[in-house]
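lol so apparently i was supposed to do this last week
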Amino acid sequence: MGNQRSSIDIVKNNKGKKRLKNKKRPKMIEQDPSERIKNFAEVSLGLTEEMVELETQRCLQCENPLCVAGCPVNIKIPQFIKLLKEKKYKKALYKIKTDNLLPAICGRVCPQETQCEEACVLNKLGEPIAIGQLERFIADWERKNNLKECPECAVPKGIKVAVIGAGPAGLACAGELAMSGYDVTIFEAFHIGGGVLSYGIPQFRLPKEIIKSEIETLEMLNVKLEYNIIIGKTLTIEDLKEIGFKAFFIGVGAGLPIFLRVPGLNLNGVLTANEFLTRSNLMKAFKFPDYDTPIKIGKIVTVIGGGNVALDSARTALRLGAEKVIVVYRRSEAEMPARREEYHHALEEGIIFQFLTNPVKFIGDENDDLKQMEVIKMELGEHDESGRRRPIPIESSEYLIDTDTIIIGIGTKANPIITKSIPELKISKRGYIKTDENFQTNIEEIFAGGDIVTGAATVISAMGAGKRAAHGIDKFLQEKYINKKE
Ligand SMILES: Cc1cc2nc3c(=O)[nH]c(=O)nc-3n(C[C@H](O)[C@H](O)[C@H](O)COP(=O)(O)OP(=O)(O)OC[C@H]3O[C@@H](n4cnc5c(N)ncnc54)[C@H](O)[C@@H]3O)c2cc1C
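anyway here it is w/ flavin-adenine dinucleotide bound
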């Protein structure tokens, strides 16, 4: 186990009053890298109560808290931290849950460093408050104590709303609608909920039991979950209308893998991160042979990409027994979209990064088994539409990397199943659903949010969209049905 000491020291001034010696935040307890690469247990183990006590003292309780504006679901951060400081844990939990029903998840995977913590005033003075870690602490405290705080629901309105997709966007939308008194059913294609949280993010970053437990909070709000139903195939929106649903939220994510256009894509040993992570996470290949999903992993695994998907694939491959894992990314370290914490963890675990490198072709043997990858060195040019400097190949700089497995983790795009089943629904050229600022589509009863609107983004931005879409749905239903009744 890692260092269990907090990096904050308390000193007393000449009047005997306690103050913090330094402005450092506590370091989470973590599994030792040499140990954790042999297991799928969680890497970060959270804060101790003592660390929380010290960290909450650093919060300045700003009158105009920038952190709240920095959070896409606007959690009342100073208030929950104050309650934590006063050790009113149940109340702190309740405070968070009125804005965010998935605190144990968000406390673990949200990119706080670019959201609430980036906005924290202390960021300019030293280190920002560890908001995510405090959120995680209180959510874990709830589970450890077998409690289940759940906000109250308004009086039932007797109006049915269908939410399509049980990812962060759908779950947030469903929770918000249920709290407003709607009769909500989530239709999910897979056999479990959570979306990417379940099939994409590995167990060592986000244990499945946490996702299950947070979905239970929704069930306590009387949200119904119907699994193994693909809307657009098993049932259509028209079928749902016939059984009485009055409004719809589409939160189906953007789960279709993007392939590289290079020769050798069909060789044995070339996988997409989607397939690799779904097999490992959802179908529990990491527990093979206890679960009968095999997963072939070579001695040298090369992962292409620089986001969370690529890093999750690399770290999973290591835990599945790869001897060497290389991440090949076409831009530089500075442009890498993966969370800093994950990058840091990957380095600690011995993952090798080759920046400014791009695949040219995959090379196999006579049996079409992958053996090598030809890559080319890149340099950064002008800024492109993403705001990052464009990678440009350096002429005649090609070289070979020996590899048995290649995992392509360069991103995902919209899956057209549902949009094709609603031909009049307006979509962008890339297949994403178009909405207005209230997340309403061109079809008045259909709303959408999350990755299917923005393209691949973050858990909390999807949740924010789901929440705000729920407000839009409420307004629409109030005007169309409820106010008319009165
Ligand atoms: C490997 C990986 C790691 C990531 N790591 C992070 C991270 O650390 N932090 C972070 O903030 N973000 C991370 N992200 C991004 C984040 O997970 C997504 O932005 C977020 O999950 C999007 O939420 P969503 O609800 O829009 O879609 P999804 O999570 O994709 O959920 C959509 C759900 O809809 C279901 N569905 C699809 N089509 C249908 C249909 N026709 N009928 C019924 N159900 C359907 C799917 O099965 C799925 O359950 C990661 C993404 C990946 C792939």
